[in-house]
Amino acid sequence: MQKIRKAVIPAAGLGTRFLPITKSMPKEMLPVVHKPVIQYVIEEAYHSGITDILIITGKGKRSLEDYFDKNNEIENNIYLDDLDRILDELNIFFIRQKEVKGLGDAIRYAESFVNDDSFAVMLGDTITIPPCIHELMAVHEKYNAPIIAVERVPWEMVDHYGIISGADLERDDFLIEHLVEKPSPQSAPSNLAILGSYILTHGIFNAIQQTSPGKNGEIQLTDALNILNCQQKMYAHLFSGRRYDIGNKPDWLKANIELGMQDKELGKDITGFIENLCRK
Ligand code: UTP
Questions:
Q1: Residue 277 C-alpha to ligand 1 middle, in angstroms?
Q2: Per residue in 125-145, is it b (16+ CB within 10 Å) or e — as a string?
Q3: What is the Å distance from ligand 1's center to 77 Cα?
Q4: ∠ at Cα 216 (211, 218), nearest 5°?
Q5: CA of 200: how far to CAs of 8, 17, 120, 137, 184, in Å?
Q6: How far is the CA of 278 from the centre of ligand 1 (A)?
Q7: Reduced to 3 states, what is the DSSP secondary structure of residue 57?
Q8: Where are the domains of the chain?
Q9: Quick one: fold of 6-262?
Q10: Ligand 1 pocket, mutate which of 14, 55, 56, 194 (most atoms under 8 A from CB)
Q11: Residue minimizing CA distance to atom 6 of ligand 1
Q12: Ordered DSSP codes for 79-105
């Protein structure tokens, strides 16, 4: 079976939950400790063996493209050197989503980039610890089919997420039966929420074409996946780690705390500070 080498990173969303900052900067450029969210996503892809990345941008997202230029003028900065090393080995492409019409619509723009290959989808505003896409690749090798990462969320929160129902398989895997976007807690088939990492196959593009606007009038990827699920087997995998949706303020703050405490340079200081605060 072919290894996954291509990743699509949708980053065209408006980021309204992070207003007013997102009036003039993309949420993907929000700093988490000392680098923007999008760099964590790119690094996760790189360390998982991805070589080709398509970032889907849109209005007001120009700074994302500028960020991935190499910096020959500024020398001897350890952080820039790290990024430049990765950029040397990756091919990064950009395409603009013409209108913000939903995640399903955004993925549609990747069709000619992925060709017939299976590919990873990683949201441009989501950090996973440890890297979720790496975990999904191992599951994909087992089933050779589309795989969706899920996490359990509190029942009262299911209406914020795409939710799956499925039959339990070995080791935290599920054979998907049904997917539904933002169901009410009363109607949700489970509390297994789609967290934003996927491995998909070419069939998704046909399914997106057949998908009508759903919740919020947008073309929802979850609805397209439901169509695809009627045509082929699909699996979900319960992610073993933590994911931070940086587009929401509490998650942004929590990610800064966790990664700040782990940071080589700042960790000791931040950990001492948090311990002191907790004692008060
Ligand atoms: P979100 O659900 O986080 O929506 O999108 P959003 O518009 O970005 O943010 P809010 O809700 O207004 O605060 C999930 C992912 O899908 C991308 C986003 O960039 C994010 O990575 N997306 C969403 C697109 O690329 N295009 C779209 O039309 C919608």
A1: 34
A2: bbbbeebbbbbbbebbeebeb
A3: 32
A4: 35
A5: 10, 27, 6, 11, 27
A6: 35
A7: strand
A8: 6-262
A9: Spore Coat Polysaccharide Biosynthesis Protein SpsA; Chain A (3.90.550)
A10: 14
A11: 13
A12: HHHHHHHHHHH-EEEEEE-SS---HHH
Give me the count of residues in the chain: 280
Pocket test for ligand 1, best of 41, 55, 123 (most atoms within 8 A of CB): 123
Residue corresponding to tokens 């705390």:
257
**32: which 2 tokens?**
């988490």
Tens-of-pLDDT digits for all 280 residues of the chain?
A: 789 999 999 999 999 999 999 999 999 999 999 999 999 999 999 999 999 999 999 999 999 999 998 776 666 666 677 788 899 999 999 999 999 999 999 999 999 999 988 999 999 999 999 999 999 999 999 999 999 999 999 999 999 999 999 888 877 999 999 999 899 999 999 999 999 999 999 999 999 999 999 888 999 999 999 999 999 999 999 999 999 999 999 999 999 999 999 999 999 999 999 999 998 8
Instruction: Quote the Cα angle for 96-97-102, to 5°.
Output: 150
